[in-house]
Amino acid sequence: MAIRLMLVDDQVLLRTGFRMVLAAQPDMEVVAEAGDGAEALQVLRSTPVDVVLMDVRMPKLDGVEATRRICAEPDAPRVLILTTFDLDEYAFSGLKAGASGFMLKDVPPGELLAAIRAVHSGDAVVAPSTTRRLLDRFSPMLPATGGRQPRHKALERLTEREREVMLLVAQGLSNGEIAARLVLSEATVKTHVGRILTKLELRDRVQVVVLAYETGLVRAGGGTFS
């Protein structure tokens, strides 16, 4: 079954370009388009969509708020933020709002297609190095913890091993790198990550990173609190 896509961008020419690339894929279908966030919400009420490609700066309702409202719905489609500038503060806000990742609009077609498939399968598409740079830049925007210990009570649900894995995810390590660091199999690490997501009620590993920074588990620059 083809991945059902929705394009949300106020620039018709950009939507046309993306649609041409996506329509050529046998496993993808553009089923809806919208020129702003408000229109996107309206269209989604009647059109089943798997992945939304969301612009950020749009009239009426911007992509961040639209993403927040979409992701708050049960069985919500995945959202992939498309931004013009790398490390845009709106991209950070989009991740916090529930987006599964972000990419630049000038991304090569192959990378865009791979990102869509990854998001559809439940993965995040922000590379670990990009995640670190993003959060290092915008960590001053995060609320102060007021101490060295995290305050998020949900973290108490994690086992010692799950907390250890979470810290490494928060530092931007891939499953393979975590497996090597902890002398585990990649399958075991993937299982731990899945349990972390379930216990903390998070959508993907990008939100794990955001939560770790917000609660003070990690500091800007990748350091951890002891």
If you had to describe this structure to a student in words, what would you say it looks like?
With 226 residues, the chain is of the alpha/beta class. The chain has ten helices and five strands; from the N terminus they run E-H-E-H-E-H-E-H-E-H-H-H-H-H-H. The protein has a five-stranded parallel β-sheet with strand order 2-1-3-4-5, with helices on both faces. Strand 4, helix 4 and strand 5 form a beta-alpha-beta unit. Helix 7 crosses helix 9, helix 7 crosses helix 10 and helix 8 packs across helix 9. The longest helix has 15 residues. The C terminus is likely disordered.
Shape: globular
Strand order of the largest sheet: 2-1-3-4-5
Structural class: alpha/beta
Beta-strand proportion = 5-15%
Q: Percent helix among the residues?
A: 40-55%
Count of β-strands: 5
Uncertain ranges: 142-150, 222-226
Please describe the biggest sheet, giving its number of strands, its sense, and whether it closes into a barrel: 5 strands, parallel
**Tally of DSSP helical segments:** 10
Radius of gyration: 18 Å
Distance between the termini: 47 Å
Oligomer: single chain
Question: What's the helix-strand series?
Answer: EHEHEHEHEHHHHHH
Mean pLDDT: 81
